[in-house]
Amino acid sequence: MRAAIENKYTHCWQNKCVQVCPTGSSHYEDPPNGCVRQTTDEYDEERHFAVHAKDDNFVTLVAIDKCLIGQGFNKPKRCDCAFYTEEKIAFIEFKLRPPEREREADTRQEKRLEEAAEQLIASIKSFEADGFITTQNVEAYAHVGFQPIIPAPTATLQNLAALINAETQSLVDFYASNEVNF
What we know:
The protein has helices spanning 2-8, 12-15, 109-129, 154-167; strands spanning 18-20, 24-29, 37-38, 49-53, 60-63, 81-84, 88-94, 137-143, 172-176, 179-181. The chain is an alpha/beta fold. The protein has one domain. It has a 6-stranded mixed beta sheet with strand order 1-5-6-7-8-9. It has a 4-stranded mixed beta sheet with strand order 3-2-4-10, with no helix packed on it. The two termini are 17 Å apart.
């Protein structure tokens, strides 16, 4: 997949949009002024996304928003990144509460979950159209602050999962979570 992405998006290798992840557990952030990257900060379950990779799985990060797809007013909305192996690709969208809003006062989690689903759909459809998704299992993750803090509403998750699967060619497993296992 890496070669196909780098052939389509020739700026990709210069911007380091595709990077191999370390084995074990690693944590990623979506900074305001840059693309998704591995963080060395102390793990924050609400702000960071955890990738757990077995020693025999080579996981690769594709920074989509602000890297593969540039920034700007007219740029298409896409999710923040994807992680993939030969067997699985996981699309991730960070939609976190503003840091100044207290966790208890956060009333927009469900709206952020819906917004994340729209961006995940757009990215999955783009990867399908470009032929990047071949035989991999496809997963989509909305990192909106629900888990492990509080569980996401089951009906909302089911409705969004149905929407994602109606809009894409792939069968997609959808989660509101801050971690993925490979």
